[in-house]
Specification:
Largest sheet: 14 strands, mixed
Low-confidence stretches: 1-21
Structural class: alpha/beta
Radius of gyration: 22 Å
Helix content: 10-25%
Number of strands: 26
Number of helices: 13
Shape: globular
Oligomer: single chain
């Protein structure tokens, strides 16, 4: 086996003065104004209520009920962060806000909800840099709109409830079948039982969407659960960039997010999925993301994780066709009381496939940041290449950084490279920057900015600035 050398081009990191964020924009919560809030816990009655309220076809209800049986029979994960303090019987699994579904104008959205999204900058971003926006609040999408020029090209951008109604054949073919089976693990079975809202995208053959599409998922209620489903189908030779943002206010009670993202990248297509997950520190973020990548196609994952009490998230690419490629770049920040268990999985199933994984973990004030990943290259996948680099940076003596990589290589004619580094901020670097007139706090921020720069430079400017500033705010709050 040979080692691949990857060279990264250098760009200047975004300066802290270029962007400002008020943390209250994320921690703010509204008084509950709801059409319906299910009783705590999940059972057949809740499942039937969800399905009937959406007027779903019989096959979807049957799938939900079968998933509930699977969920009840599966055990919690026995590896990684402990989930013993998560009481699934205390979660409200279906919450309908007092708002119209899929409003086409922000003026039609209730004032308190609209102002929440305005504070988060969603309407402004829609005007300036997005081809379409979906906004989910609790269990339902309250705003959804696609630019007319993309509609005219045949682009489909709906929430999943609408996608099921308008494209039943396409939906049934791809929804939780080959990409993410219902019995994959306990929390995906739970998701299949109670999913609501999310995003449905179909990009026709040969259509290249140059402007990103975005959905933003907001939780508000105490002890709430959000289970949005994202289904993306990029037909042959098409291209799309999809961005997801997530946040929730902070409560003392636990909340649960168990969304699902499944992406089908057909022959010659390209999909970039970018996500900044900023859940509150009482939220358990147990998300599942997978893509099937066909011949001559490319799947790109860009992930930023800095909220939640516990995150368990490992985007997976299944390289099904010859010359399929995938890139993953992720950064996770863990502060006090947080455990960020993130990483990436790649399954090579065809010759001449390529994968690159770059993961950056930052921990401070007792937080734990760990990389957990798998690269599997099956027999017969000749001339395949993979490169994995996972780095952990601890900002004090109380924190932990872990790497748990796994390689399963069954073919000799491949190139495999892996590099992992874990360490604290070097005193020599701090001394050098402070000798140039910077304070210790500013020096730490500059070192962290350089550490996460490979991730930052892959995001659109405004999202890169947001992620950079959010991490700065976390550092500020930790050292106050």
């Amino acid at each position: 086996m040979e080692t691949i050398q990857i060279k990264e081009t250098k760009k200047q990191p975004i300066k802290p003065t270029e962007f400002s964020i008020n943390r209250d924009n994320y921690d703010h919560y509204n008084q509950e104004n709801l059409k319906f809030k299910s009783e705590k816990g999940v059972n057949e009655e809740v499942i039937k209520k969800i399905s009937s309220s959406k007027n779903e076809p019989e096959w979807m209800l049957e799938k939900r009920l079968e998933a509930l049986k699977i969920f009840n029979n599966l055990q919690l994960p026995n590896w990684g962060p402990s989930l013993k303090k998560l009481n699934l019987n205390e979660i409200h699994y279906f919450i309908q806000p007092e708002a119209n579904k899929n409003s086409k104008s922000w003026d039609e959205v209730p004032e308190d909800i609209r102002k929440t999204y305005e504070k988060l900058g969603i309407p402004e971003a829609e005007k300036n840099s997005l081809g379409g926006v979906g906004a989910q609040y609790e269990s339902e999408v309250v705003y959804h709109k696609l630019k007319k020029e993309l509609e005219e090209q045949g682009v489909v951008f709906l929430d999943c409830d609408e996608g099921l109604k308008k494209y039943p054949g396409l939906f049934k073919k791809y929804f939780m079948t080959s990409c993410i089976p219902v019995d994959l693990h306990k929390f995906i079975a739970l998701h299949a039982a109670v999913w609501s809202g999310g995003t449905f995208i179909y990009i026709p053959k040969g259509v290249k969407v140059k402007i990103p599409l975005q959905a933003y998922f907001r939780m508000n209620a105490k002890k709430g659960g959000q289970f949005e489903h994202t289904l993306i189908i990029a037909d042959e030779d098409s291209e799309v960039h999809y961005i997801e943002g997530c946040s929730a206010p902070k409560y003392d009670e636990s909340s649960l997010h168990a969304g699902c993202v499944e992406i089908h990248v057909l022959k010659g297509a390209k999909v970039r999925y970018s996500s900044i997950e900023n859940w509150s520190k009482n939220t358990y973020n147990l998300n599942t993301k997978r893509a099937i990548v066909h011949e001559n196609s490319l799947m790109e994952w860009i992930n930023g994780n800095l909220g939640s009490k516990i995150t368990m998230l490992y985007p997976c690419s299944i390289l099904l066709g010859e010359n399929a490629k995938t890139d993953y770049i992720g950064v996770a920040y863990a502060g006090e009381g947080q455990y960020q268990d993130t990483g990436c999985k790649v399954i090579h199933l065809a010759p001449n496939t390529r994968s690159t994984i770059i993961s950056k973990g930052i921990s401070m004030n007792g937080g734990v940041s760990s990389y957990r990943g798998l690269v599997s290259i099956k027999k017969g996948c000749i001339n395949s290449k993979t490169n994995v680099r996972c780095d952990g940076l601890m900002l004090d003596n109380k924190s932990k950084a872990l790497t748990c990589p796994s390689m399963d290589v069954s073919e000799n004619d491949v190139e495999v490279a892996h590099e992992a580094t874990i360490g604290k901020i070097g005193e020599d670097k701090l001394f050098y920057l402070m000798s140039r007139g910077l304070t210790e706090d500013d020096s730490i921020k500059m070192i962290v900015a350089g550490f996460i720069e490979p991730v930052i430079k892959q995001l659109p400017l405004e999202y890169a600035a947001e992620l950079n500033k959010l991490i700065e705010l976390e550092i500020d709050n930790s050292v106050c």
